[in-house]
Amino acid sequence: MAEVTMTVNGKSVSGTIEGRTLLADFLRTDLRLTGTHIGCDTSQCGACLVHVNGMAVKSCTMFAAEADGAEVVTIEGMANADGSLGVIQQAFQDHHGLQCGFCTPGMVMSAAALLKENPKPTEAEVREYLEGNICRCTGYHNIVKAILAASGQDVVLAAE
Amino acid sequence: MYAFDIEQPKTIAEAVAALASDEAQALGGGQTLIPTLKQRLASPETLISLTGISEMQGVCLSDRGELCVGGATTHAEVARMAAKSFPGLSGLAGHIGDPAVRNRGTVGGSLANNDPSACYPAAALGTGATIKTDRREISADDYFQGMFATDLQEGEIITEVRFPIPEVSNYQKFLQPASRFALVGVFVAKYPDGVRVAVTGASEDGVFRWTEAERALSASFEPASLEGLSIPADGMIGDIHGTPEYRAHLIGVMTRRAVAAAS
Ligand SMILES: Cc1cc2nc3c(=O)[nH]c(=O)nc-3n(C[C@H](O)[C@H](O)[C@H](O)COP(=O)(O)OP(=O)(O)OC[C@H]3O[C@@H](n4cnc5c(N)ncnc54)[C@H](O)[C@@H]3O)c2cc1C
Ligand code: FES
Ligand code: FES
């Protein structure tokens, strides 16, 4: 057992963990931040995607011990300070970018990482960036539209 | 996963000392090792994380015209840092897996694992890279020893990889869309003294050099030089994604595309 301390969504948190404790499990079980989903648990689906020191990572494939001292942001950190939906979240709602919603936390976190790197991505760039995020419901078009809208661009898709 | 401890050394020397214990194993980005641990295919007592070692991070140019990449440098970092100096390598690193995998996975982990469908082995063999470890330097031609097999000894870690920068190069990957690894990948690199062609994803012996294509392209570096050349399907991987014949055919296609796209 070891102690870890990290900043999660702006708050300093600590906990006692095993070496094998995954970051996803620390977030979900110890911190009760259950917005981070575990879909595949094999680094394929991206439902568990969070930001660690500003970078998109799959929290099912990183140990909590490796995030000691890091800045972590999860889906719970994406709303505005007054609790209203953040720009990307609102765009997902406006463009019907979710159905069951299971993939949505990972999609939103991936979108946020993309827009930070590339504020005006093309449709093709959005699709390529989402390669590690799997959605079983939407067929992706509305997710791509939501992300283009969140970047302030037109939402006409070439692929439709 | 079985239980284990994690140690996070700050220097190569500390990591090597920690790895001297029988039951210790190196942890790079974990993108291969963590899934392996989850399946209980490995049971180390201690994982020695290499990602906090600053001497194993980053990309620089040597005065011998090599791109030197620290063994714990992520794919994302290589994609970014090599974009101008070595676009062929940057393109390869920037298309491994997906963005989140690239933010964690490291060059040392990829080469140590030597998955028969991995991308980096093609770049290392295709450039004749030098693999520097905590105890020696290994040339890529001696390093790869078949699927998942390398010349690394127990507890030996890759601290740096030196890729000689070619005049032009390119990597073409025929994507296996479910795993996002290469069904077949070909790295082509043109140097003043000749061309090297390395093929991943195809052979049951892992990454290999296509020497016949190297000779033809060294005489004239254009896709037409490859006309009439083919690789026998014997010894190629056959699985639900493609037959040996299909993979052998793809090698020719990917090599032509890589030559046409080389920059
Ligand atoms: C969804 C997904 C898609 C992927 N797609 C691709 C792809 O398209 N192409 C591709 O090439 N790869 C792909 N990968 C693999 C990825 O590149 C891994 O990051 C890489 O193979 C292993 O690197 P790592 O740093 O994560 O190593 P780890 O998983 O930490 O370790 C792998 C092995 O190497 C050892 N090791 C780690 N670092 C060192 C070192 N410096 N010296 C000696 N031994 C070391 C470990 O002990 C372990 O045995 C994919 C992975 C995932 C999860
Ligand atoms: S749960 Fe982590 S990638 Fe699917
Ligand atoms: S909305 Fe159901 S998985 Fe994406």
Describe the 3D structure.
The complex is a heterodimer of chains A (160) and B (263). Chain A contains five helices and five strands. With 160 residues, chain A is of the alpha+beta class. Chain A has two domains: 2-78, Beta-grasp domain (Ubiquitin-like (UB roll)); 87-150, DNA polymerase, domain 1 (Orthogonal Bundle), CATH 1.10.150.120. In chain A, strands 2-1-5-3-4 form a five-stranded mixed β-sheet, sandwiched between helices. In chain A, a hairpin with a 2-residue loop joins strand 1 (2-8) and strand 2. Chain A is elongated. The termini of chain A are far apart. The model of chain A has no long low-confidence stretch (mean pLDDT 96). With 263 residues, chain B is α+β, with helices and mostly antiparallel strands. Chain B folds into two domains: 5-164, 2-Layer Sandwich (Uridine Diphospho-n-acetylenolpyruvylglucosamine Reductase, domain 3); 168-262, Enolase-like, domain 1 (2-Layer Sandwich), CATH 3.30.390.50. Helices cover 30% and strands 23% of the residues of chain B. Chain B has ten helices and twelve strands. Chain B has helices spanning 12-19, 33-38, 75-81, 87-93, 99-102, 107-113, 120-127, 140-143, 211-219, 244-261; strands at 5-7, 24-27, 46-49, 59-61, 66-70, 130-133, 137-139, 158-164, 168-175, 182-191, 194-200, 208-209. In chain B, strands 4-5-8-6-7 form a five-stranded antiparallel β-sheet. A four-stranded antiparallel β-sheet of chain B has the order 9-10-11-12, with helices on both faces. Chain B has a three-stranded parallel β-sheet with strand order 1-3-2, with helices on one face. The longest helix of chain B is centred in the C-terminal third of the chain and has 18 residues, at 244-261. Chain B is globular, with a radius of gyration of 18 Å. The termini of chain B are far apart. The model of chain B has no long low-confidence stretch (mean pLDDT 97). One FE2/S2 (inorganic) cluster binds next to loops of chain A.
